[in-house]
Specification:
This protein is of the alpha/beta class. The chain folds into 4 domains: 52 residues; 108 residues, Immunoglobulins (Immunoglobulin-like, Sandwich); 32 residues, no CATH class; 157 residues, Rossmann fold (3-Layer(aba) Sandwich), CATH 3.40.50. The protein is 27% helix and 28% strand. It is built from 10 helices and 21 strands. The strands form 6 sheets. A 6-stranded mixed sheet has the order 17-15-14-19-20-21, sandwiched between helices. A 4-stranded antiparallel sheet has the order 1-3-7-5, with no helix packed on it. Helix 1 runs antiparallel to helix 2 and helix 5 packs antiparallel against helix 6. The radius of gyration is 32 Å and the shape is elongated.
């Protein structure tokens, strides 16, 4: 943690205001009683301390600072770097020190970090950098931080706050998982790269019209702009859609923080696998989320995966909206045709989330539960899996 600045009065015997008053009284008394030596010594020391105090007061004046975070979206075990730049826009040289605190969950790497001190010449600059390693999932802010500087003798020191605005977002740890056969509906082909029927919802661009395709595919605006008939290009797609649900109430009721984190890690790994397959996916959670909505609508691609991982990183223990309310509030287009994957501590809790769906949407469901025991009841179209069924073991890797 950053050290609090030492009060000016405690830095030296004569450094504070009381010491300066004593020196002024001694100087005046020496003159009054013709003690020239005492008066000269007290007056000289007084002038020196006043000059040093003025130096300290002016040290941080017109010192421009900037900071940049490199790689502040990362996984546990990865590192990021902070680069700070300082510029002294005045003729007075100063020596500055940046005191920076970091929260639990981030570890500073001293071998790759600066000492925190730098000398700034008149109208000169300096750069410093620090390296940290992310230890666990979450959202962090560096600080509090302060820039301090003082006189050459170190009798006086001034501190100015220095704030880092950017957040460090640490995604859930990526696990090696076995393939998850997620349910989906197939409307326009088997796979985007193999489908033979084009999907009019996925417009990709235009090309010269060859007259072999229906005229309704002509892009008239593009044709006018280019002066040549252009036709629309559509990508074949399977419309594979998966809705992920995290039911976290059971982990908190059982006081199982490790299981809570394991569930988020598994959910992030499943989302990564789904994204790599080219499917569309969404996410909802019943837990509290920092500065982020608890429901992420359907989407696909790297940006969607990044949004899902960020939502998982921002989930904190605490009750949010119930899964029943979240799922019952989905629009007709929000989850229609989607397969549902519910991650919960117990299979019964996952089943309760499934029952929150409208009957028309219960066409494909997977409940992934942390406990080993399976419930005594089942339902048609429902697949029950445990965490152990999905996380790749050492034997599976061989």
């Amino acid at each position: 943690m950053a050290r609090a600045p030492i009060p000016l009065e405690k830095r030296s015997l004569f450094g504070g205001t009381k010491g300066l008053v004593v020196l002024a009284v001694l100087s005046a008394a020496g003159l009054a009683y013709s003690a020239v030596g005492l008066a000269f010594f007290a007056f000289t020391l007084l002038c020196l301390l006043l000059a040093l105090r003025a130096w300290a007061r002016l040290a941080l004046l017109r010192v421009e600072t900037s900071a940049e975070l490199e790689g502040h979206r990362l996984y546990p075990g990865e590192t990021f770097r902070i680069k700070a730049a300082f510029h002294n826009a005045k003729p007075l040289p100063v020596r500055i020190r940046l005191e920076l605190a970091h929260p639990e969950g981030l570890t500073e790497l001293p071998a790759e970090s600066a000492s925190g001190e730098a000398a700034l010449r008149a109208f000169g600059g300096a750069e410093m950098s620090w390296c940290y390693r992310a230890e666990k999932r979450g959202v962090y802010r560096l600080g509090p931080a302060g820039i301090s500087s003082g006189d050459l003798l170190g009798l006086y020191r001034e501190t100015s706050p220095f704030n880092f605005k950017d957040e460090i977002v640490v995604f859930p740890r990526k696990l090696r998982t076995l393939p998850l056969e997620t349910p989906f509906r197939d409307f326009f082909g088997i796979h985007p790269s193999k489908g033979v029927v084009e999907d009019p919802a996925w417009y990709e661009g235009t090309r010269d019209y060859d007259g072999l395709r229906p005229a309704r595919n002509i892009h008239w605006k593009a044709s006018v702009r280019l002066g040549v008939l252009q036709e629309k290009i559509f990508a074949p797609t399977s419309h594979r859609k998966v809705f992920l649900v995290f039911e976290g109430a059971g982990f908190e009721e059982a006081e199982d923080p490790d299981g809570f984190e394991s569930a988020l890690e598994l959910l992030g790994s499943i989302a990564t696998s789904i994204a790599e397959s080219g499917a569309s996916f969404a996410l909802a959670t019943d837990r509290a989320v920092r500065t982020h909505p608890a429901v992420l609508p359907l989407g696909r691609g790297p940006e969607q995966l990044g949004s899902v991982l960020e939502l998982l990183a921002r989930i904190v223990p605490g009750r949010g909206r119930s899964t029943r309310r979240l799922l019952s509030g989905l629009g007709s287009s929000g989850a229609m045709g989607s397969g549902f994957v519910v991650v919960a501590r117990g299979a019964a809790e996952g089943m309760a989330s499934v029952r929150a769906l409208a009957p028309s949407r219960r066409h494909g469901k997977i409940v992934v539960h942390a406990t080993a025991a399976e419930p005594d009841f089942g339902e048609e179209g429902l697949q029950l899996l445990s965490f152990a069924d999905l996380v790749e073991s050492e034997e599976d890797r061989r």
